[in-house]
């Protein structure tokens, strides 16, 4: 990879990498968590947290031509994000990076763990791609593939880091900084996915919907 990186952010400006997924799921949820510092747990978030903790707590190990690192700290001054990768597998390769105490070169292969099923949108893929861009920046290497492990089907979905996915990830990071810098929480808009959100009782999107309809009726009655 080229070394002419353009750093857009400082260490003090780094945002949580996980916020990219929050943003793609719902901008209001993202602002509630990362602007207003609101949080609430439900069964889904607890199960997800426990899954991540189990992966992070495992020991790093080398099995033949594969080295497995867990709970890898990441950061990117280009995207302006930092976080932790659940797991990064390093495969012995003709190209890649040197690992301390190990001979040869090793190609990183990031793996993100999710408790549920593959989603209809790209939020999981963007999160994984952001981890990859962090690794590429930190290690000066090009990574072509990674995977998301889903807990309900209990299998991996391999992900290719296409230029379109990379571009979407960069644009999502830019939008995240714009949202957080604005300090403004978008208004509620009820959707089917809202009921699975742990912040449903704090967000109250149904109340917002009812209030809008009430105001519309009042305006219609004005002569």
Please state the second-level CATH architecture of the largest domain. Alpha-Beta Complex
CATH topology of the largest domain: Lambda Exonuclease, Chain A
Q: Rg to the nearest angstrom?
A: 20 Å
Q: Helix segment count? A: 7
SS class: alpha/beta
- Percent helix, as a range, is 25-40%
Describe the 3D structure.
- There is one protein chain.
- With 223 residues, the chain is an alpha/beta fold.
- It folds into two domains: 11-186, Lambda Exonuclease, Chain A (Alpha-Beta Complex), CATH 3.90.320.10; 188-223.
- Helices cover 39% and strands 23% of the residues.
- The protein has helices at 19-25, 27-34, 43-57, 123-139, 163-182, 200-203, 205-221; strands at residues 15-16, 61-63, 66-76, 81-93, 105-114, 145-150, 155-160.
- Strands 1, 2, 3, 4, 5, 6 and 7 form a seven-stranded mixed beta sheet that branches.
- Strand 2 and strand 3 (66-76) form a beta hairpin.
- It is globular, with a radius of gyration of 20 Å.
- The chain starts with 14 loop residues before the first strand and ends with a helix.
- Mean pLDDT is 84; it is low at 209-218.
């Amino acid at each position: 990879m080229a070394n002419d990186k353009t750093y857009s952010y400082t260490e003090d400006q780094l945002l949580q990498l996980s916020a990219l997924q929050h943003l793609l799921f719902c901008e209001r949820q993202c602002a509630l968590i990362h602007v207003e510092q609101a949080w609430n747990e439900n069964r889904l978030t607890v199960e997800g947290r426990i899954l991540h903790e189990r992966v992070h707590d495992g020991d790093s190990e080398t099995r033949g031509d594969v080295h497995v690192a867990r709970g890898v700290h990441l950061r990117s001054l280009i995207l302006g994000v930092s976080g932790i990768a659940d797991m990064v597998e390093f495969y012995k390769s003709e190209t890649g990076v040197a690992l301390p105490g190990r001979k040869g070169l090793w190609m990183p292969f990031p793996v993100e763990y999710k408790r549920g099923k593959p989603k209809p949108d790209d939020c999981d893929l963007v999160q994984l791609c952001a981890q990859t861009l962090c690794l590429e920046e930190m290690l000066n290497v090009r990574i072509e593939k990674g995977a998301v492990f889903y807990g309900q089907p209990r299998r991996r979905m391999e992900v290719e880091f296409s230029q379109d996915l990379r571009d979407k990830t960069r644009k999502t990071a830019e939008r995240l900084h714009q949202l957080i810098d604005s300090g403004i929480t978008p208004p509620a808009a009820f959707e089917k996915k809202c009921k699975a959100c742990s912040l449903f009782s704090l967000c109250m999107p149904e109340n917002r919907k009812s209030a809008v309809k009430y105001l519309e009726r009042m305006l219609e009655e004005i002569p």
